[in-house]
């Protein structure tokens, strides 16, 4: 606000009332007390100098509640947008719904024109979902399936198949498009402009690619949200790993990195957060460092993970994501490792807890004490 006060005081207010001391004082007082909405001049200056956001989209606009009304015509909901008479008749948008489950009255609506289809968006309060469960459950996000909980139950089976199918197909399409792009450039450089233009127009469009991407996005979100609801059916407290920050020095193999980044990154976290909020459950994030490398029986850096299996120190073989979910459940009550503990500090804590490290440290302390007593003697 101080920047606005400075701007208005130095330019607009002084220019307007520099010859009237009383008026100048009145405008300054209104501005400093935050009552500038009572004065049309100040209100206009605030709107003028306020830093609004700038949108680059050119296919949508917002309609205020007082600028449109709805009506039912032949069983279909029709949105009538009022415009100035000099620009023509009101715009009538015939929707595909009968209006029984739609109520945009009293709300701003957003009109979006996309691929020759007009969409009407409005905000509404999401109703409460079905009752949540009563358990405390930790879930590990996976690739083959969406979640594996600390009870060993799998949620969202088939997620990996969707991502693998799309990612591999998109990769193959991209390689073919690169060859066509190189061919188009070759013809253009050789002066065969007409042929290059035909390749660009008929073979290098993005309509089908975007349609395929949108379809897969919906399938992934559907799978993720179904899995999240399945988890909350059991739990009132859901514990999951925080994957918002990159894992240091971790370079997954190329195809895995491509598949995981293909539309699914963040969708699982969004599904958990949204579902727990809607159904009045709690969602708690914990530090994810080394939860996949720890033995869930001892919660130490023991055992070995190979693919989807984890070989425990006592000889047990667990499903790797189930083992990680058990470690996440234990991490929730760990007082030494918080959400923001660096991974190097987490490793130091885990190594210090191991029995071998404790014995070695104890032996070293004993040797140091013996040495000290010998020197003193």
Break the fold down into its secondary structure elements and pairings.
Layout: H1 2-17, H2 21-32, H3 40-49, E1 60-63, E2 68-73, E3 76-81, E4 91-94, E5 109-114, E6 117-122, E7 135-141, E8 145-149, E9 154-157, H4 159-189, H5 193-203, H6 207-232, E10 235-241, H7 254-261, H8 267-278, E11 282-286, E12 304-306, E13 309-311, E14 317-319, H9 320-332, H10 343-353, H11 355-376
Parallel strand pairs: 7-10, 10-11
Antiparallel strand pairs: 1-5, 2-3, 3-4, 5-6, 7-8, 8-9, 12-13, 13-14
Helix pairs in contact: 1-2, 1-3, 4-5, 4-6, 6-8
Keywords: DNA-binding
Protein name: Putative transposase DNA-binding domain protein
GO molecular function: DNA binding
Q: How many domains, in number, for the residues?
A: 4
Q: Biggest sheet: strands, sense, closure?
A: 5 strands, mixed
In total, the number of strands is 14
Give the uncertain stretches in residue-range form: 357-377
The averaged pLDDT comes out at: 84
How far the N terminus sits from the C terminus, by CA atoms, comes to 74 Å
Q: Treating each run of at least 4 consecutive H or I residues as one helix, how many helices?
A: 11
Shape estimate? extended
The helicity comes to 40-55%
Strand order of the largest sheet: 9-8-7-10-11
Give Rg in angstroms.
31 Å
Secondary structural class: alpha+beta
Strand content: 15-25%
Order of helices and strands: HHHEEEEEEEEEHHHEHHEEEEHHH
Domain Cas12f1-like TNB: 267-328
Organism: Ferrimicrobium acidiphilum DSM 19497
InterPro entries: Cas12f1-like_TNB
Pfam families: Cas12f1-like_TNB
